Amino acid sequence: MTDKPRVWVSRPTFPGVIARLEPHFEVSVEEAERKFSPSELADKLAAQDAVIVGLKDRIGAAEIAGAHRLRIVANLGVGYDNLDLDALGAAGIAASNTADVLNESVADYTWALLLGAARRMSAAERWLRAGHWHGSEFKAWLGTDVRGRTLGILGMGRIGQAIAHRAVGFGMPVIYHNRSPLPEAVERACNARYVDKQQLLGGADFLVLALPLSARTRHAIAAPELALMKPTAMLVNIARGGIVDDAALAAALRDRRLAGAALDVFEGEPKVHPALLTLDNVVLSPHIASATTDTRRAMTSLAVDNVLAMFGYGPHAGRPPNILNPNVL
Ligand code: GLV
């Protein structure tokens, strides 16, 4: 034991990056990926000065009740709906995320999903793996072209903007809805036009969700919103499960009131609504939009920077660069 402050990392990441903490901290890293119960988390947090956690670690008042030494919770993710910022702020504990370093990887993956849905890639692959070959039939596996179709984006933060930038290459006009319109110069750079939510729902041929989950955005896309979409439209969710009512979505896809969907995130993750698993007009993946080696390494590095800064080390000493509750500083 040393008298260095202690950092706990709740999941295996990149040891070479975590090693940057070692000169200043006693570091413990979980060797296997797992989900901690609230009481396990509370026990872990009680013994730490800093923690680097993932999105499945839900941290609120109960988990920090005994965490008297804890100064920062550094989240490995841009979204932080797993953290209760009010409870952390009230306890004087800083919280940080990994905004920005994942924008481009997530935007790339969004397009992979969108194109995968448009061209029915998952279903075609399942068909091929099952030993069939229908690709040679002229009218088998007909998909949808994206050129000239309208891309709608709900939530036009930095990820939404990175998604919009790529639309130029695919020849797609972009409409978006956001809490407030972007400055004109940013809109111009994204080639995107602000519309209200109803116009977005009715106008998009491909609707991408890129907004954070909060009490306000929970079920932002449910049966009434799905009913406003074109029956030929496709929905892409790379944001968070819970923004979409997955049961209502599955029903719309089953009844062909919506042509298709591509989902990287699910309500009640890691569970997936069973009806979605039975449908052929949906592309599914296990929450991997930011999962490239470079990006996951950069996210780890940013979490480390935030911890170092909280304890007065590194170029951001005293002010973690991604602080979410600056009032605690
Ligand atoms: C992933 O979902 C993230 O929030 O970074």
Strands, helices and their partners?
Blueprint: E1 6-9, H1 15-18, E2 26-29, H2 38-46, E3 50-53, H3 61-64, E4 72-75, H4 85-90, E5 94-96, H5 103-118, H6 121-129, E6 151-154, H7 158-167, E7 174-177, H8 184-190, E8 192-194, H9 197-203, E9 206-209, H10 223-228, E10 234-237, H11 246-254, E11 260-263, H12 274-278, E12 282-284, H13 293-310
Helix pairs in contact: 5-7
Bound molecules: glyoxylic acid.
Number of strands: 12
CATH topology of the largest domain: Rossmann fold
Count of structural domains: 2
**Dominant shape:** globular
How do the strands of the widest beta sheet line up side by side? 8-7-6-9-10-11-12
Class of secondary structure makeup = alpha/beta
Task: Give a quick summary of the entry.
This protein is an alpha/beta fold. It contains 13 helices and 12 strands.
Describe this protein's structure.
This protein is an alpha/beta fold and 329 residues long. It has 2 domains: 6-101 and 293-328, Rossmann fold (3-Layer(aba) Sandwich), CATH 3.40.50.720; 103-284, NAD(P)-binding Rossmann-like Domain (Rossmann fold). It has 13 helices and 12 strands. The strands form 2 sheets. A 7-stranded parallel sheet has the order 8-7-6-9-10-11-12, with helices on both faces. Helix 4 (85-90) links the parallel strand 4 (72-75) and strand 5 (94-96). Helix 5 packs across helix 7. The structure holds glyoxylic acid (GLV). Glyoxylic acid (GLV) binds at residues 55, 77-79, 102, 290.
